Amino acid sequence: MRYAAVGAFDGMHLGHMRVIHEAGEDPGMVFFEPAPRQVTGRGVWRGRLTTAGERYEMLRCNGISSIITLPFDAATQGMPHGEFPGILAEIGPFDGFVVGYDFRYGHRALGTTETLKEGLGHLGLGLRVVEPFTVGSIPVKSGRIRELLEQGDLRGSSELLGRLYGATGVVSRGRGLGRKLGFPTLNLRVPGSKLLPPAGSYAVFADMGSGPLGAVAFVVPEKHLVEVHVPGFSGDMYGTAAKVEFVSFLRKPTSFGTAEELAKQIKNDMEISMEVLKEWH
Question: Label partner for 170 (CA 20 to 30 A): which of 45, 218, 234, 244?
Fold first, then answer.
């Protein structure tokens, strides 16, 4: 029997991976796009943990290729919850579906796991509901991970994600200040919907397509920008995609009176970053 996991899956954290695991071998994936909270406005919207492209790449790397995207718009938001089981029944050759314990759907989120199970049952389809997944005593939730990232707690967020938190962006041209100081940077422009950690310097791994390299980065959240210096790298990356994974926070933004003072601080950041990253080899 073939099952598909259903949900927003923003973050692809350990709880989400448990839902996917419960779908069994060769699972299907059914996503909402954009992320429902981007449309509904429920709660405080802090940004996405994974963009659509990042989520797809994670699944591809895990050997999952059967991916169905359902649009989430005003019509979807206002849809009577009784219609949703029929939509799932039409999307693919699945015998049933898997959702998390807190899955909600339909107008005013009135649809629950109980109503979904009943609706799918009438159509001859099964439903598996995955109970909360915890790390220690902490439930793994996307909202909690966002809170940890906003606090700069990369270790805490990584424990709930089951991986380092990362961001993928397109390398664009900057002012060239880093190059003038002897520390050329890759200026990653990330999507505006992506949540970045607080402004400041970080020890990171950078991947330009050939595997992760130790680097130091400076994050400017309000500009959706990550400036990355990779020691020894001098290739032309303009217009291509690159990824950074945040390992450790180094310092908050600081004003410098001279270019020499700034260069000295960047050098110090780089040296500290390299020491921090040694623990990950």
Answer: 45
